[in-house]
Design goal:
Shape: globular
Distance between the termini: 43 Å
Helix content: 40-55%
Strand content: 5-15%
Radius of gyration: 21 Å
Largest sheet: 5 strands, antiparallel
CATH topology of the largest domain: Aminoglycoside 3'-phosphotransferase, Chain: A, domain 2
Number of strands: 12
Number of domains: 2
Number of helices: 14
CATH superfamily of the largest domain: Aminoglycoside phosphotransferase (APH), C-terminal lobe
CATH class of the largest domain: Alpha Beta
Order of helices and strands: HEEEEEHEEEHHHHHHEEEEHHHHHH
Bound molecules: 5-S-methyl-5-thio-alpha-D-ribofuranose, magnesium ion
Length: 400
């Protein structure tokens, strides 16, 4: 796909401030502070604040390549518009869990949005042991609402297809297809892991049952258009405090299988479940229960009250769908666990473990759980996953 980038100019701290002043979103007469705070893989993020009032805004700019990979992976700038539109869409369904977009510019690939600096990125907060008593209920409700309201159960099918057309996102989907669903599962394709994990990685590459199931999951990701997904719902895409939750970074948004968002969040909780001990581990199990219970309750409520499908009252339809979401989610979660362990874009949850032996042990466990979820997803539920983790009864790769 080609795109004319002739009007594109990368912002600097100075031009970001000038831009903010021009938009009138910040007091032009105030003393201002600007810092580039982007620690993500794809974009630059400028945080501009008024020195006295601390009032601020965020300017996010996409660049025409994947920052984490380098200029060798070109990307068009369309993702900035997709992100801005997705945030606006999601906010219309769950205003409390999505930041406000103030302005967007497709040519400059800029999204200007609400300053969330009073909150902390959840991955960092969880690693620091911060309590998040409402987080998983909020995310459960967020996924239920975004999944339901953008589906054929709420939108007329032709209207849904029109929305889906605006969220065709081949470039960002390709990143997921390559880095989550392909590379980590073949020895000869690029990977990124400590040499001590070679045997564990080989166990996955040589397990044809895992590879077959991943092929099915990849096909589901590529072909199913159930709902408008966030597409990258890991704990680094969420800002939160004890009381407030905001889902950011929607540039991977596309129409796909609902289980993908459910699975990304689940997998990223599981990294914490693996690395924590004692009460901290139990806290994560509570998150898993709260997330899934809230999702199912909220989705059921929406199904019962706002469903336009003539099939809505058919006995067994909703349970069939919820079981499908869960089965898909566990499979996708398994792929995410494996990808963040031996593929590109590792997670701090594992990499902050300084002691090498403990780090390798944790990563071996995430590989085992990943394979377990992929192979057994049909028969699993949250208690069974927790049970396997608690009792170390992951039935695969006992030799790892
Ligand atoms: C090339 S981008 C690598 C990863 O960062 C994003 O957050 C997505 O998870 C993507 O797979
Ligand atoms: Mg991101």
């Amino acid at each position: 796909m080609t795109q004319n980038h002739s009007n594109f100019k990368r912002l600097t701290n100075e031009t970001a401030v000038t831009f903010a002043k021009k938009l009138g979103l910040i007091n032009a007469d105030a003393s201002l502070n600007c810092k580039e705070i982007g620690d993500g893989n794809l974009n630059y993020v400028f945080h501009i604040t008024e020195t006295d009032t601390k009032k601020g805004i965020i300017i996010k700019q996409a660049v025409p390549y994947a920052k984490v990979i380098g200029e060798s992976w070109p990307l068009t700038l369309k993702r900035a518009a997709i992100e801005a539109n997705a945030l606006i869409h999601f906010k219309s369904y769950c205003p409390e869990f999505v930041p406000q977009v103030y302005y967007s510019d497709e040519q400059l690939a800029i999204t200007v949005m609400e300053d969330l600096s009073h909150l902390k990125i959840v991955r960092t907060g969880l690693i620091d042991g911060d309590p998040y008593p409402l987080l998983s209920q909020h995310i459960g409700e967020y996924v239920a609402k975004t999944a339901f309201y953008t589906s054929d159960y709420h939108l007329e099918p032709s209207a849904k297809k029109e929305v889906a057309r605006h969220f065709t996102n081949p470039e960002l989907c390709r990143i997921t297809e390559v880095y989550i669903f392909t590379d980590p599962f073949f020895e000869e394709l690029p990977g990124d892991f400590e040499v001590e994990l070679t045997d564990a990685a080989k166990s996955i590459w040589n397990d044809q049952d895992v590879i077959l199931e991943v092929a099915k999951l990849k096909q589901s990701f590529e072909t199913e258009q159930e709902s408008l997904l966030h597409g990258d719902l890991h704990t680094g895409s969420i800002f939160a405090s004890e009381t407030e939750t905001k889902v950011i970074d929607a540039e991977f948004a596309f129409y796909g299988p609902v289980g993908f968002d459910l699975g990304q969040y689940t997998a990223n909780l599981l990294f914490q479940a693996v690395t924590r001990n004692g009460p901290g581990k139990e806290e994560i199990f509570t998150h898993l229960h709260q997330f899934w219970n809230t999702f199912e309750e909220a989705y059921t409520e929406l199904w019962n009250t706002q469903n336009i499908s003539p099939f809505r009252n058919v006995k067994g339809y909703l349970p069939y769908l919820l079981a499908k979401f869960k089965r898909d989610a566990f499979g996708f979660a398994g792929c995410e666990l494996i990808r963040r362990t031996i593929g590109l874009s590792h997670v701090a949850d594992l990499n902050v473990i300084e002691d090498k032996e403990s780090r390798i042990a944790a990563k071996t466990t995430t590989l085992k759980i990943g394979a377990f979820l992929i192979k057994k997803r049909e028969e699993l539920d949250v208690p069974a996953v927790i049970d396997a983790l608690k009792n170390h009864t992951l039935p695969f790769y006992s030799t790892l």
